[in-house]
Amino acid sequence: MYAIILAGGYAKRLGPIGENKAKALIEIAGKPIINYIVEKLENIEVIKKIIVSTNQKFGDDFHQWNKKFKFRKVKIIIEPSRCEDEKLGAIGGIEFVIKKENIDDDIIIIGGDNLSGIDFNELIRFFKGKPVNALYDIKNIEEAKKFGVVKTDNNKIIDIEEKPEQPKSTLISMCIYIYPKRILKYFNDYIKEGNNKDSPGYFLKWLCKKEEVYSFVYDGFWFDIGDVKTLEKADNFMRSTNYLL
Questions:
Q1: For position 244, what pLDDT does the model report?
Q2: Would you call 90 helix, strand, or coil by DSSP?
Q3: Residue 7 DSSP symbol
Q4: Are 120 and 160 spatial neighbours (Cβ–Cβ below 8 Å)?
Q5: Number of domains present in the structure of the chain
Q6: Which of 116, 118, 140, 152 has a 20 to 30 A CA-CA distance from 192?
Q7: pTM for the structure as a whole
Q8: Is 50 exposed, middle or buried (0-12, 13-18, 19+ CB in 10 A)?
Q9: Distances (CA, A) of 45 to 48, 96, 121, 126
Q10: What's the pLDDT tens digit per position in 180-196?
Q11: By residue range, what is the domain housing residue 75?
Q12: Which among 179, 171, 180 has a CA at the least distance from the CA of 153?
């Protein structure tokens, strides 16, 4: 299994904080967000390599980060973009990594700006060769409007609606997915059809029409670091609880 951490965005909503630093490298409680993810993945035996997908603007920063922390399994892949208008989008970035690394294996995809206490070992045990998306009950209809709202039936995902004006539930898609290697060919098919490359949720919605996709509902803390308010909230939470991931 390969892990792909998505870190190719330009953090526009973070204002000056994200202007010269990738979101995944912003520190929370004295540690880069991405470290909370990588430190857990490094200790999972089935994960052969952890690929961090970023862009040309922040590529050197990630190389310096990896040099500093000396992670054993990490490899930095830089997509050919320097600004928002050039970015490949999440799906484009995943397809770029799959082709560049000639990946023919199961993959776990994680948003580099996701901070949670999810147990990746438990998620992988649940996987068993089927497409899986980690879900989270945000318990607030207004908050659900900011995310992909998921409809399930007997643990299967049957639909997802990106940032709906009127959410039908508060169960949302976390940017954490596991796909068996047989699914990898679909990324290229999806892009060739001219579909939206920016959000993984659009690919998931498309995939649900072709394959059975299963839900793994996570019940713990979770922060999607998309704006300054959430960043501050996450930092305060981690410091106040002295939480060790």
A1: 55
A2: helix
A3: -
A4: no
A5: 1
A6: 152
A7: 0.94
A8: buried
A9: 7, 25, 10, 16
A10: 999 999 999 999 999 99
A11: 2-241
A12: 171
Look-up of token digits 């998931």: 204
Closest CA to 208 of 133, 144, 106: 133
Q: Give the amino acid at 220.
A: G
Report the CATH number that the domain containing residue 61 is assigned in CATH: 3.90.550.10
Written as six digits, the tokens of 122 are 């438990």
For residue 228, the number of C-alpha atoms closer than 13 Å in the C-beta half-sphere is 8
Banded pLDDT at 91 (limits 50, 70, 90): very high
Strands 74-79 and 49-55: parallel
In whole angstroms, what is the distance from residue 145 CA to residue 88 CA?
25
pLDDT band at 19 (very low <50, low <70, confident <90, very high): confident
For the chain, the first-to-last Cα distance in angstroms comes to: 22
Which helix (DSSP H) or strand (DSSP E) does residue 32 occupy? strand 31-32
Q: Is 134 left (phi over 0), alpha (psi -120 to 50) or beta?
A: beta
Output helix, strand, coil percentages for the chain, rounded to the nearest 5: 35, 25, 35
CA pair distance 183, 71, nearest whole angstrom: 28
Structure tokens at 16: 């000056």
Note whether 200 and 95 are within 8 A (CB).
no
Counting every residue, how long is the chain? 245
Strand 31-32 to strand 27-28: parallel, antiparallel, or no bridges (unpaired)? antiparallel
Q: 215 in helix, strand or coil? A: strand
Query: How far apart (Å, rounded) are the C-alpha atoms in residues 174 and 80?
Result: 26
